[in-house]
Structure of Efflux RND transporter periplasmic adaptor subunit:
Amino acid sequence: MQIPLLGKKEPDRNPIESAQAEPDQKQPKQTEPKKGLRPWLIGLTLVGVLGVGFTAFRMLNRGDTTADITNATETVISTELSIKIKASGSVVPIQSVNVSPKQAGKLTVLLVEQGDRVRKGQIIARMDDSNIEPLVQQARANVASAEATLAKLRNGSRSEEVASIRARMESARASANLANVRVNRYRDLQAQGAITQDRFDEVVTSERTALANLQDLQRQLELAQNGSRVEDIAQAEAALEGQIASLRNLEVQQQDTVIVAPFDGIITQKFSNVGAFVTPTTAASASNSATSTSIVTLANGLEILAKVPEVDIAQIKVGQQVEITADAFPDRVYKGRVRLISPEAVIEQNVTSFQVRILLETGEDQLRSGMNTDLRFIGQKIDNALVVPTVAIVTEDGKIGVLIPDENKKAKFQPVTIGTTVENQTQILKGVKAGDRVFIKLPDNAKPKPK
């Protein structure tokens, strides 16, 4: 064993290596101590060698207490922590409807294009009404005739009409008398066999016709002189109401050929062109597809339709604030609020979730229907929460903890109890205090010793 000479500079090396002979170095030949060398000098030399080795061991195990670990650690801070529930969703219209006619037919006029804004009641298109127009005109004529009949019954007949009826009645009376005379004469002839039975029957029929005509004119004269009966007026009124109802029904059918916007909105899809045969909306044509038999799709407003996992739905409330980012605008954060939470779950591929509708407070002029979005529901706020970067959380022997620097700036495992994790921060419930530093990465001189 060599002992460095006092005052002689040794080359840089590990202190323990300096205190031991290197295995590949030739050992110097040991000589017998000179005669007369005192024993206490030998003991002093051994004590010096042991002191050098012990000092080197302490230096190795102690580490560099002057090492800067600031860049490798973060401070435990106390802050307000907002719990955020993540979900995905898509932009959908608040209102959306496929506009179609009530009756199948040919499209003759189309007044809008995709992207046009329309107002409620604005005419969008017209259907062919050529088969309804003649029926409407006939119904209007029937109403006019019924109105004239009722007016005549209510107002009564004029004196000229009474005189005319009386004259025709006197003529009918004369015809009836003549017919009666002929019947009596022909009855005698028929009894004598001078005429046939058929000829006699013809004369009898003529008499009956003359009498019926006389009786009808007598009733007309009576009505003209005395005015219409209440029953006749009521019957005429009912007839008029029936004609009016028929006219209104046809007018409604004609009006249904004029297609109007049911609410304010934007034309998002156009399915048909002029000349196309379109049909009323059905379950098959309600979809926004090129095969739809509707005319256009009208949409109003935008909202987010989200799917929230069953485990998180209890933390979602109506009116809750939501942060929204869209794939199309990844650097922008839009604001929204929960408008509706579905009372019934949706199960897809054995995954249970609930539909949540979110009303947009910002971004409605930039987002478009069908865009994909990422959502963060702002949940409970925790005041004075101790938080550390999530990357600082480690495990050792199945225990959760963090690495903190000891007095020698070495990494020391410290068990902790964690709370909620929000993005890149994790709440610490127990184990550290505000102001403590935790390792987020380990420099070589701060790595923990292997056990």
Remarks:
- Residues 137 and 299 are 37 Å apart (CA to CA).
- Residues 159-192 form the longest helix (34 residues).
- The longest strand covers residues 77-99.
- The two ends are 31 Å apart (CA to CA).
